Amino acid sequence: FQSRTAADGTVHDYAFLGTMGGGTRIFDVTDPAHPTAAGRYTDPGYQNDVAVRGDLLVLGFDWLGAGAMVSTCLKSKGSGTTGFQRAGVDIVRLEFEPETATFQTRLAGCYLSSLSSAGAHTTTIHPSGRFLTVNTSFNGLEVVDVETATLVRHIPVAVVDAAHDVSFSRDGNTLYSAGIDSTRIVDVTDVYEREPTLVATVPNAPDAGQGSDGN
């Protein structure tokens, strides 16, 4: 969700939705009972998990369970070819038009995972807007620089577990990884300069009635 001020001074609220196989849809939800279309970024692929911060929009494409259904940009880097089971993220710039209170979108680049058989199950933008995380859901996560769409570092499973989804503290120094088997709390201070360090592990502990579903 995000809010913007139109040319007439009114504040509009927007919802950004990732659609499987259709890209991002942007809706004006100022009147929640009557949403209206306010823009889109159309690109194929699964699962189109979406993250937004300011004028930055990031879409995640997950190879797992979907095969070669990735973005056009990722295909241009080799994703989807035989023996190349990797996916990643599209990095998109939002251009708000105050007169119409709608958005135009522009592809700025894409990042193809450096890991074998991996993609972006989800993606999370750091509070600084400088980097994002590609959350692979089974192979740790990758820290990616937004401006250059290049890898900063891979954070392995030993630190972040099989990162399924990620969030940050408000100051951006702490990362919380919802892994498959545990939740990890990780110090990511100066992630460009130093390896992240594990602060604590919160294990999943399903009871007998839950069985494996408790994870």
Q: Order of SSEs, N→C? A: EEEEEEHEEEEEEHEEEE
**Oligomer state of the chains in this structure:** single chain
Rg is 18 Å
Secondary structure class reads mainly beta
Mean pLDDT level: 91
Proportion in β-strands: over 45%
| Main β-sheet, spatial strand arrangement | 1-2-3-4
The gross shape turns out to be globular
Query: How many DSSP H or I helices?
Result: 2
Percent helix, as a range, is under 10%
Largest sheet: 4 strands, antiparallel
Residue windows where pLDDT falls under 50 for at least 5 positions: none
Number of strands: 16
Query: Distance N terminus to C terminus?
Result: 29 Å
SSE map:
Layout (H helix, E strand, L loop, with lengths): L1 E4 L5 E9 L3 E6 L7 E6 L5 E7 L2 E6 L10 H5 L11 E10 L4 E11 L9 E4 L5 E5 L5 E5 L4 E6 L1 H4 L2 E6 L5 E6 L2 E6 L9 E7 L12
